[in-house]
């Protein structure tokens, strides 16, 4: 199920859960198409939490980060960023990332603590 900030609270203590966030904009036709495919993919990975964040409606979630290409994806495991960047709009690319993620990474970004923001929303 595709979730939205300020509507769907992040489930706490969900073991082995990936937080997968897609930063996009509703005015972007590529984003609108990607949202449909992301929703379908989220139904295949029910253990993980998929959020759709429109950067214009929810700008507080990007802080000082400059998102210039869509879709831009963030994947966190236990509040640790293991993937961050823009990717191809082919949903198979994200599917591959989820299946092969290296959870030993800890990528630094300028993003605020999104995990805590979603827990509080």
TrEMBL record:
Residues 15-80 form the Thioredoxin domain. SUPFAM superfamilies: Thioredoxin-like. Gene3D superfamilies: Glutaredoxin. Pfam families: Thioredoxin (PF00085). It comes from the Bacteria. InterPro entries: Thioredoxin-like_sf (IPR036249), Thioredoxin_domain (IPR013766). This is Thioredoxin domain protein. It comes from Candidatus Kinetoplastidibacterium stringomonadis TCC290E.
């Amino acid at each position: 199920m595709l979730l939205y900030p300020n509507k769907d609270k992040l489930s706490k203590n969900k073991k082995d859960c990936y937080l997968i966030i897609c930063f996009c904009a509703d005015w972007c036709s590529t984003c609108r198409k990607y949202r449909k495919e992301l929703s379908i993919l989220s139904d295949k990975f029910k253990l993980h939490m998929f959020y759709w964040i429109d950067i214009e409606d929810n700008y507080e979630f990007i802080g000082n980060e400059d998102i210039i290409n869509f879709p831009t994806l963030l994947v966190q495991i236990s509040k640790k960023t293991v993937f961050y960047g823009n990717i191809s709009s082919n949903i198979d690319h994200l599917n591959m990332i989820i299946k092969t993620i290296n959870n030993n990474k800890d990528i630094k970004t300028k993003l605020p603590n999104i995990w805590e923001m979603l827990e509080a929303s």
